[in-house]
Amino acid sequence: MAEPRRSALAVGQVWSFHTRPFTGFSPPDTGRYGAFRIIGLTGDILGVAVLSGVWHTPPTATDVAGAMVIHEHRFAFRGKPAVFGARPEEWNASGELDALTFVADQPVSAEDEALFAMLTGFARGAGFGELSNVDTIVEGEWRWANDREALIAEIAQEEAREEAQREAEAKRFETRLAKLTWTQLAAETPLARWQPSSPYPPPAFAEAARATLRAACAELAALGDKPRRPAVRTVLKRTVEWFNAADNAAGGVIGTGEREDIVAALEDIAYAARQPALMDDIDMWREW
């Protein structure tokens, strides 16, 4: 039986995982499992070979015995072996792969050693990426071979949504962010879309959130039309950390819609302060 394990990583190990939907428009539960083998390990490179085979339950040692490396054919791929180098520190990062489970130890083949040598030697064609790429490869290859038309349609939907988001962001910048002032922000109600009933956060949380955003605006407005970046960074970080703590204390009330609203409010503050580059830091600070 497969044994859940996240440590003691070694060359020759085979691991299974539950694949994730390929796009935001794909069915939410794939019902599929894939597997990969560790073909090499140094302090800097975790060599991964994605194995052929897709299962409806976690594969056993017998299932993966003799499994070959997948050759990629989806989209523009032309039969490239699904082998790449990831960062070893990703192994213990949470959320990289779903239902990651140890399956078996296998002997290291001459092919494995040759493929890993290409990675460590940075040979032409050597690929590098995130460990989660194994998920993309297995699910993408299965969909391409078995459900191609639906996959292409889902990707088109996702591209259309992304284009609409880009257009909305461009319009928001042109009509609001580019000329936003502290006076304008002070006259508005932060998180105005939040109603005092489900599915929005509880009224006490919403009011405290609004007060926190107003306080941040007032503190920065007192520093002038363009406060210094370190000062703006300090206020924004403190505000994000307040939301981290408040959301945790409330049991996780910040969902997707609330997150978008809060990020938009923080974006307003960054642009009003004429320090939009700090938006990149917000994603690093937030835990919701």
Task: Describe the protein.
This protein has 288 residues and is of the alpha+beta class. The protein has nine helices and seven strands, in the order βββαββββαααααααα. The protein has helices at 61-64, 110-120, 133-146, 148-175, 182-186, 203-221, 229-249, 256-272, 279-285, and strands spanning 13-18, 33-41, 46-50, 71-72, 80-81, 83-86, 98-105. The strands form two sheets. The chain has a five-stranded antiparallel sheet with strand order 6-3-2-1-7. The protein has a two-stranded antiparallel sheet with strand order 4-5. It starts with 12 loop residues before the first strand and ends with a helix.
Measured as a percent range, the helix fraction is 40-55%
Low-confidence stretches: none
Provide the structure class: alpha+beta
Mean pLDDT: 94
| Percent of residues in beta strands | 5-15%
Radius of gyration: 24 Å
Strand line-up of the largest beta sheet: 6-3-2-1-7
Oligomer: single chain
Measured distance between first and last alpha carbons:
35 Å
User: Could you give the count of β-strands?
Assistant: 7
Spatial shape: elongated
SSE pattern: EEEHEEEEHHHHHHHH
Number of helices, counting only DSSP H or I runs of 4 residues or more: 9
Q: Tell me about the largest β-sheet.
A: 5 strands, antiparallel
Query: What is the number of independent domains?
Result: 2
